[in-house]
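The following block was generated as part of the benchmark described in Methods. Ligand: 8-OXO-2'-deoxyguanosine-5'-triphosphate.
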Amino acid sequence: MKKVDVVGAVLVNENDEILCALRSQAMSLPGMWEFPGGKIEAGESPQDALRREIKEELGIEITVGELIADVTHEYPAVIVRLLTYYARMINSEVVPIAAEHEKLEWLGRDELAKLEWAPADIPTVERIYRV
Ligand SMILES: Nc1nc2c([nH]c(=O)n2[C@H]2C[C@H](O)[C@@H](COP(=O)(O)OP(=O)(O)OP(=O)(O)O)O2)c(=O)[nH]1
């Protein structure tokens, strides 16, 4: 089966809220929430891929921090290895705009469990969730 290496950003703002992104009908896994990011290209480090994808998808510059989870999940058509990293916006005054996602939402850590997450994201959500 096809295997892809994917990075996702757990972007945290000044209120300790986390940016959650809803996959659109044009994407695979439509209607599921994820951490913005995408596939790592040949020759790219995970951090480089994440900075590039976040610029493309949200129009913002980030700094990439600590690794949160390294999860391999087998979907029906693809095996995804998802690496998630904490990230911060370089300029907190710029507003992220969804170029591809249906919707973006900043949520508190205690609110994350109410969303329907892509299965590969569950270990990350469990790690950052705070009741
Ligand atoms: N970006 C991102 N992708 C995720 C997450 N969780 C998860 O299972 N995925 C999956 C969905 C896709 O199969 C793949 C990411 O590829 P992508 O974001 O470049 O997706 P895409 O729609 O361009 O690709 P495709 O699946 O339509 O080929 O990883 C996540 O938190 N962030």
